[in-house]
Amino acid sequence: MIIKGIDAQLWAERYLTSYLCRCNGECNYIRIDKRLIMADLLLDEVRPLGALEEISSGLRCPVHNAQSGGHPNSSHMYGRVEDRYTGTITLADAYTLLKDLGAYKGIGLYIGKNHKPFVHMEIRETERVWGRIDGIYISGMKGINAVLEEERRRSE
Predict the structure, then answer these.
(1) Do 43 and 84 touch, CB atoms closer than 8 A?
(2) What is the largest CA-CA distance in the chain?
(3) Where in the sequence is the domain holding 43, given as residue range(s)?
(4) pLDDT tens across 52-111, in order?
(5) What is the CATH number of the domain that holds 46?
(6) Considering the chain, what percentage of its residues have pLDDT values greater than 70?
(7) Strands across the sheet with 115-122, in order?
(8) Of 104, 50, 14, 15, whose CA–CA distance to 95 is shortest?
(9) Considering 20, 39, 62, 150, which has the largest number of Cβ atoms within 10 A of its Cβ?
(10) 8 Å CB contact between 76 and 122
(11) pLDDT for the residue numbered 11
């Protein structure tokens, strides 16, 4: 399946199952922004092996989004975002890779005691970055820098 020059079939083979809503498949809710597909395929060309492969959260139906504690207008419900575990690279390397790629305008870095580090990768019109440490949200580059410092501290 080609969507205006995008190999959506390739994306679907790699990511669709892990991208779909995790409400036990009961909702049949499907929305995917074609820009997300394009960004993911670009990322696949440059990311190191084992890095940013596993999608921890992609599409969410409104019910699942509410149950997950998501923002009432979360981009997860509109098919414009996915959260991915960092895999074989650090949050610092993931942030640099995504900023250099330029396809995701929203980048959030998450580190916590109860989950593996992950990156929120969002298709949006304006740039926005933030960090979250053990559930505490910190906006802007202050948040990014705080998460990267916490990552360094935890790795010592």
Answers:
(1) no
(2) 47
(3) 2-155
(4) 999 999 999 999 999 988 999 999 999 999 999 999 999 999 999 999 999 999 999 999
(5) 3.30.1380.10
(6) 94
(7) 55-57, 81-85, 115-122, 106-112, 128-133, 136-139
(8) 104
(9) 39
(10) no
(11) 81
Tens digit of pLDDT for each residue in 10-19?
Answer: 788 788 888 8
Domain total of the chain: 1
What per-residue confidence (pLDDT) applies to 150? 97
Residue 12: phi, psi to the nearest 5? -60, -40
CA distance 21 to 51: 22
Beta strands in 42-89, from DSSP E residues, in sequence order: 55-57, 81-85
- Please give the Cα distance from 121 to 124 (Å, whole number): 10
Match 């969002």 to its residue by tokens.
122
152 token code pair: 């360094």
User: Which regions of the chain does DSSP assign to beta strands (E)?
Assistant: 2-3, 6-7, 55-57, 81-85, 106-112, 115-122, 128-133, 136-139
Answer yes or no: are the C-beta atoms of 98 and 151 closer than 8 Å.
Answer: no
Beta bridge partners of 84: 55, 119
pTM: 0.90
Asked whether residue 2 carries a pLDDT value surpassing 50, the answer given is no
Write out the two tokens for 117: 């580090």
